[in-house]
Structures are given as structure tokens and as C-alpha cells.
Amino acid sequence: MLSVLAASTPLLLAATGELVTERAGVLNLGVEGMMIVGAACGFGGAWLSGSIIIGALCGIVAGILMSLIFALMTLGLAVNQVATGLALTILGIGLSGLIGARFVGEKITPAPHLHIPGLSDIPLVGRILFGEDGFVYLSLALIVAVWYVLYRTRPGLILRACGDNHVSAHALGYPVLRIRMYAVMFGGACAGLAGAYLPLAYTPFFIPGMTAGRGWIALALVVFASWRPGRLVAGAYLFGAVTILQLHAQGAGLGVPSQLMSALPYLATVIVLVLISRARSGGSTAPAALGTVFVPDR
Amino acid sequence: MQLVLEKRAERSTGIALVSPLIAIALTLVTMSILFAILGKNPIAALGVYFIDPLTDSYSLQEIAVKATPLVMIAIGLSLCYLANAWNIGAEGQFLMGAVAGSWLAVKTQGTDAGHWVLPAMLLLGAIAGALYALIPALCKVRFGASEILTSLMLVYVADLLLDYLVRGPWRDPKGFNFPTTAEFDPVATVPVLIEGGRLHFGSIIALAVVAAGAVLLGRTIKGFEIRVVGAAPRAARFGGFNANQLVLVTFAISGALAGLAGIIEVAGPIGHLQPGISPGYGFTAIIVAFLGRLNPVGILIAGLFLALTFIGGEQAQIAMKIPLDVTKVFQGILLFYVLACDSLILYRFRFISASPKVQSGAH
Amino acid sequence: MRKILAAVAAALLATGAGLFSASAADKLKVGFIYLGPIGDLGWTYQHDQGRLALVKELGDKIETTYLENVSEGPDSERSIEQLARAGNKLIFTTSFGYMEPTLKVAKKYPNVHFEHATGYKRDKNMSTYSGKFYEGRYIQGLIAAKMSKSGVLGYIGSFPIPEVISGINATMLAAQTINPNIKVKIIWVNTWFDPGKEADAAKALIDQGADVIMQHTDSPAAMQVAAERGKLAFGQDSEMIKFGPKTQLTSIMDNWGPYYIERVKAELDGKWKSEDTWDGLKEKMVVMAPYTNMPDDVKKLAEDTEAAIKAGTLHPFKCPIIGQDGKEVECKDGHLADGAILGMNFYVKGIDDKIPGK
Question: ipTM surpassing 0.85, yes or no?
């Protein structure tokens, strides 16, 4: 059970950022690239400074810098978002290898697990609720904050408006491109932090390619959650649980093909997408302007 | 002062011709700096990347081999994108084509099946790719589900299916449990064009696909329809064009081409089915499609150019010990510059004083 | 069309041959093809350590080149051929998936010598080499059975190929000599390399009661999880004690340096010939990391066993070998034949699991 929380955290963090980005109408397929650079810089920062927090900040900054390249291209120059996102991933994999080369083989002390005397010792729930590393709680706090901002505040409303109809939002006088840039940067920060989580807390060393496709899963998660923060949490833990359960099922000697188990989340995502789109008869709940280029008329 | 983009009244033909040159020049400058930082001679390094692979027939063949699947897939994708249908799952269609075609190769293995096997495999590959692409297309048309996301999800499903097949039912009985089918029989293999080389018949098919794409887009009503629906959906509706039908058609074509590319790759350069048959061709082809500006001839050039950077990157590793990661960075930067410069074809930059809509509080 | 293209290509071939002049350096060029990045801390890292040892020993006579991150798909044949064309006279291809491509390129370049790791196909100019890793697994099995309190071992497998299966069997045969009721739980992660997944697998195994973790995957993730949970573990491929100073019992280290040096020397002397090399502890292709975190009697048992295997008095797969079905496996001359181990596709009695895909 415990490993589900930890396994889901990088997915949840990266997906939270991507959710905000997509809600603003921008599809950034470069999550994997931003994550792996975040992992390299996060580990480098922590190793050089000896501080997990500085490492995490380095990961966040690296993610933001990567996302700014994306923002410059897609928002500043109106380049296609899909192509740019893919190019960002290629760049990220290369950069992380160059940055991380000197850290390979080094080791740090991982982020400590919380221990609140009394509470953490409660049987069963104690360790789950009060005994994980700080990132786990941070990721949950973050998604709650995102939910609050998106649905309960004016900036959130404006952000969603940009994602649903950028022409109207622009006509109402909102700076669509600037809002989208902030959303993209937030996505980069989250992806960078998600990447940094892997070498800082999960496995305390850096190896090239250690994100192993988690950025792509985060993209799937956002769809699976139909762009809703609440469902995103459920989805992230479901994805994490399927991965872990698959391993447990093997250890217990159940003969289910592991590929079938691994394919389930993706199939489920497609089905969910069809169902929600159908329920809305005609329109999907996806932000209507998702992935489209916007150039303000002057 | 603020820098803004402004839409040009019409495409700038002059910039369309110059922009790739600007992009390449910028890339050369950036990479020279990077090479200098890494302590390599920039001129020599760039020579290894761009010039050396073009100077001998072996590298030229390899460039063609590498470009073949990229170009085939990208042509199909360009039709989709022109029609505003966003197929991101070509990688999955590629794998499904490879799986379906391989099925016949595995079933006929060791029998005295004749020369019909290979054509049948290619056909199966194309059909499977098309059918697999129709899943997201139908979800889009029937339920309005975003095809970008469904097609992407189905990539993983195809990948896992392939994985299951080669580790289980189709595994080579003599292969010591390693996850691969047996080598295909000669009748199930794409012939090479030059004895001793790797250039294969698939490259000719790719050229034919480029030609067909150019004819379809330039000279047929369907091609006109595709471009109108993409460029002006509302006008297209008034014109009586059926956008939904077009989504299905373009997805089916691009799926078929991706599937065909998949089975050609398996029955050609690889020779058997195994996991990891695609180093991301389906995704790289998306970049190729955009680099080629969704134009068949442009895609051919873009595919060859990208293939050149792969081959050049390998030779740079051998000749100058430049790490592979540098090649990745190099490709990323190159793509950014090309995409950015292409933006100038449709837009122009203009400096304006701060927008009147910004409140006075903002400086 | 086809004829025209062939004619054009043939013309290019002619001019190309003229342009391409092999650099006539005196030094012997030796090439390596790696599956992962050289910084993977596992399989590829150890091969590169072997290359570095080679450079240290013979650096004045040779020049080495490597290509890293070469996928086992359509690109590998080209990568191998690139090395051959760049004038490398001896080329090591270090992963099983390079078998067919290496064979194809070897046929095309009869004057270049190829060495393929872990495969089973050879040619006049193509050797194979691999390590008897199961010898190390046997020692690990003894240690694990002695050190486990729960009597449950956790085993992280990559792919169910003979090398991994024989490792599991050797472990269990050894463990059963200490504790006949020992159990093993096996998780296949279907990857050589995904630190996160390896860590998850280790956690799952520990959650299911395993207290000694062994792995046949490449990263130190499992070691680190075991350290965090206060359990014991074995390293893989390389020395991993850094990731579990109080956790690592020992590690099976791949030691390719001596072999690479020997083969390059043979090439320099003009004595290279196609061979099938399968070396173990005795030849030091497989080396055990220091025995740590165990009582002296267990340490002594491990050392004695290692000595016995080296001396040839103990064979991990000595007859009789009983399969899961309770039937005796064909076994002559006192121990299983090399071929039977190289193609092993069954579990021995006492393993309560099934080989995936079988």
C-alpha cells in the first residue's frame, strides 16, 4: 500500500502541472523532457549543496526554463504545439544526459520520511497518513490548491476561459498569451519537481533516462481525469496501484500476463474519454481551445 | 515597447525559401559554440555531421533506409494535419502494421509458400494500421472524444500487445526464450536493391507514396477538400464538404501508411519481429511532417535531412568521440530553429508601444 | 525506376570508394557497441570499465571507440557496420539483441573480427563470450538461506531468458542445501533498467515477506530499498556497496577487462580465432564483491564454496537435478551439460511459480 503513494507521486505532480497548462488551452507534450531535466538538475543541486530542498528547487527552476523555451516557441512565435512538445522531449533527454554525466554513480541521502510520534505508529493508517516523505503531502496540497484556484477564484476562471475560448477571453480584455505563459511555466515547474522527486526521494541516485516514460503517463492521466483535479488524484493513485498490484500479483504467483495489466490504464483512459465525451453529447469536456494557436488581432 | 506577431495577408514566398537557411545558419552558430565549450573543433565537428555522410554511397544508402519509414508515416500524417485531424498515434499504427504482417510471416514460416507472402504481408500491415487508426477517428466522429489523446493512448496498447506476442505465442521455439520471432523466410523479406547494401525496396515505395501524396493534394478534388476543411472549416461546411467523413478518410490513409511502414521495417532491415522495432519513428515522423511544412516534397527533404543528423551523429561519436547526448541536443535545437523560422512565413514581427488594453499600472 | 536507382547508387558506390580512404594508423582499432548509456551503473558500465582496463593495459598499441545507447532495433546493424567501416578490426557487441545484426555485418566484412556477448550464433570471424554468472548465484543462494529469517527470498527478474532462469535455479539449489523448505518469490519487471520499477518490485517483495532481495536487473534501486527497510540484498553487475553499506552481502560483478585484454592481444599477435568463451569465477570473468554484513561462519562457507567452484570440485548444477514436475532432468558426467544450462527453460523443484509465457 505504501509504495502506491510513492509510485503515484511523480505522476500526480507532473499531471497537476499539465492539467493547469491544458486548462489554459496549451498542450505541452514535452512533459517527459522537462521531467528528465528536472531529475538531472534536482539531483545535481542536492548533491552539490547537500540539501534536498535546494535540489527540489533546482528541479523546479530547470523545469521552468524548459517550459519557457516551449512558451517562447508556441506562444511567442505561434509554432505548432505538438511538434514543439516532441522537440522539447528530444532536447530534454540530450540535456539531462550532458548535465547528469558527472553525477552518475554518486549517492545522496534521500528525503526523510515524516515521523510524528504517536500518529505515525497507528496500525495500518498511521504510516500511510503520517509516515511518507514530504513530497507526497506536497503533491496533495498542490492539487487541492489548484482545484481551489481553478474553481473558486477569479484568476482560475480567467485561466479556464482562455482554454475554452481564447477569442472571447481576448475580446474581454484578458492577456491570453501572458496567462498561458504562466500556465505553461507552472506546468514546467511541476514537471521539474516531479522529475526531481525520482532521484531525491524514490531512488537516491541519478541515472540517464530514469524517468522511463512517466511523463507520457502523466499526459494520459490528465485525459483520464477529464481535466478535473479531484479525478486526477484518483486517477494517479489508480495508475500507481495498477503498477504495484501487477508486481504483487506476480510475487504471489498469479498467472496474469503482465502486459494485459499494464495496458489496462491506457484502455481505461480511452474508454473514459469516450464516455465523458458522449455524456456531453457532441462536445468533449476537454478545454475547447486545447492545442490551438492563438495570435491576437491588432 | 513590445514585440508582437502579426498575421501576414498571405504566405511570404520569399521567407518560405529563406527560412530553412536562416534556421540552419542559427543552428550552426549555436552548435559551434557548444562544440567549442566541449573542447571540440567546431568546423571539424560540423563537417562530420553534415558533410561526411554525404560523401560516400554507404552513408547515402543508410540515410535513405532511415528516412524511409519517417517519410512514409509523415506523408500520411500531413494529410491528417491539413484536414485538422490530429493523429498523434502513428507509432501505434506502425506497430500494429508490423504485428499484423508478421502474423502471416510467422504462420507461413518453414512452409513452401510462394512469392505471394510478402505482398500479402504488406497488405495486411496497411489494413491493420488503417483499422487501428480508425478507432480514435470513430471515437472522435461518433462521440467527440479528442483524437489527439485517444490515438496517443493506443500507442501503449499496441506496444504491450507486441510485447506479449513476442514473449509468448510467437516466440522463436529455437530462440532460447529470448523475446523474438524466428528470422523470416526469404519470401517474407523485403528485397534489397543493391547487393551487399541495406537499401531496400521499401524506399521505392516511399518515393511512390510521396508522388501519390503530391498528386492527391495538388490535382484531386479530395485533396482540395482536405485543404479547404483544414484551412476554413466554416466555408467547407457551406461548400457541402463533410468534415467527419474527412477525419475518417485521412486517419485511415495515415494509419495505412504507418502500418505499411511498420511491416516494411520488420520484413526489411530487421528481418524478424521483436520488441523495440521502432526507435520512436511514429513520433519523429510528426516532427518530419511539420519540418516539411505538410508538403509532400518538403517532407521528403525533411525526412532525409533528419536521417542525416542521425547518421552524422553516429559518425561524430566514432570520429570525434562526441557523446550521443550532444546529438540529441543538436536535433532539438535544430527543430526549434526550423519551426521558429517557419513561423515567419505566416507572421511578421512588429514592435509596438505597450498595448492600450494593458492597464496603466503595468509597466 | 528500380534499375535507374540501382545504377545511380552503383555510380555513387564507385565514387564513394575512391573518396573513402581508410586512415592507415598503425594502432589497432577496437570498437564497442553498448546497449545503455555508459553511466547506467550496471551492464554497460561494466563493459566500459572493461574497455578502460584494456586501454590502460594496451593503450599505446590500440585505439578504442564506442557507440552507446544503441537500440536493439533496426539501428544496431548500421551502428555495427559504421564501426567496421571506420577501420575497427575487432568489434565487441555487448548485448544479446545484436546477434543477428552482428552476424549479418560479419558476413559482409570477412576481414574484421567480431565478438558477440551472450549469444549462441558464431561464424568464422565471429566469436561469442559470456560469463558463468550462475556460479556466483549459487554462492548467493547459500548466503541468502543462511541469512534469511523468514525463509522467503525475493528475486527481481528482468526477462525469462535462460541466463536469468539458470540464475534462479542455481540460487534455489544452493539455498535448499541449507534450508529444504526455503521459498522464493519472483517478480519479472520486463526491463533491464528502470530504477523506479525495480524499487517498486523490491518493495512488493519485502511486503510479501521476503527479507533477502536478489536481482537480475541493472540499477542499484533494489539495494537502496532493502537498505531503507533494514533488509539484506545482493548487488548485480557492479559493486553496489555504496548504496547499501549495511545491506549488501556480496555482488556478482562482471569483469570483462581480462577477456578484452586477452582477445586484443591475440588479435595483435595475429592469433585471433573464432571461439566460444564461457568463463566463470576461475577465469575471473565473474568476480564476487567482498562478503560483508554476515557472521564469520557464513563468510567462511561462502569463501570455501567459491574456492571449490574455482577448483572444479563443486558444480552448481550437479546431478541429480529434479524439475518442478518431480522428474529428474537428463544429466550426465556428474553435472548438467553447458548446452542444457545455456538453454535452460525449466524451474527446479521447490520453486512455486511458473515461467511466464511457458
Answer: no
